[in-house]
Amino acid sequence: MNRRQGVDFGRWIILLLLILLAAATVFPFLWMASTSVKPMGEVLGSPERLLPITYDFSTYSKIWSEVPFARYFVNSLVFACSVVAISLFLNSMAGYAFARLQFKGRNLLFVLILCTMMIPFQVTMTPLFLIIYKLGMIDTYQGLIIPRAADAFGIFMMRQFFLTLPRDLEESGRIDGASEFRIFFKIMLPLCKPAFVTLGVFTFMGNWNDLLYPLLMTNSEQFRPIQAAIALFAGKYGTDYSFVLTGLLIASVPTILAYLFAQRFFVSGIAMTGIK
């Protein structure tokens, strides 16, 4: 009886900790949602309140009419979705090569690729900007998408996943006379769904929420993604915080939907690639 009571007490402690962690995670979203419907007087008023006294939903219509918010939203979708599609293809090919193909300098090249993960973007942003500028791709979709077409983390993740697959699958394809490209596209890629979804979620969220890189590569509303545009909502002499938080709340919807849609594959993909 004492042992069972001890187990039950431990479960209640774990449940309490999980509730506290969930509350700490959800609270900023609740504050953002409530502030987006507060009048300016309440946003800057004292004492601060979580729930507004009066609700003002006018910012949800103003943000679509006073600024080209729909254009920013479309720019982010084009940027993030294009990077996801291209990087999944290139990272999977590179990961397969490092996991399955034997060639001279393979391990050294893989280590050099992993070393790039240790270099912060602030170190490479100036030479990257100069390269994109000299190629004439500043303030274009190409300038946003091409530098993000492949990354070390994606190559590493796909390599780890391919290492978990049995070699008998590809050997049977070679016995049947299949080429290496056919083995990759017909046998290996269909098995990569969990890893693809996981890497796709990481890549989509990373590019959708990025701020510094789009600010560096764009200078007009025609190509500016949503996060870079929201950063410019702050005024020189004052900021409409309800307006800014309304934009942030709308901008967070695609990432939440992407995670909810891919949650089932997300967990299994991380476990199978050995990232843990």
UniProtKB/TrEMBL annotation:
Entries under CDD domains matching the protein: TM_PBP2 (cd06261)
Main location: membrane
Keyword Hydrolase part of the UniProt annotation: no
Pfam families: BPD_transp_1 (PF00528)
Positions of transmembrane segments: 12-33, 72-96, 108-133, 145-162, 183-205, 241-262
UniProt subcellular location: Cell membrane
Membrane topology designation: Multi-pass membrane protein
Domain ABC transmembrane type-1 as annotated: residue spans: 73-262
Keywords (A to Z) from UniProt: Cell membrane, Membrane, Transmembrane, Transmembrane helix, Transport
PROSITE patterns referenced in this protein's UniProt entry, alphabetically: ABC_TM1
Source organism superkingdom: Bacteria
UniProt record similarity statement: Belongs to the binding-protein-dependent transport system permease family.
Entry protein name: Carbohydrate ABC transporter permease
Species of the source: Cohnella cellulosilytica
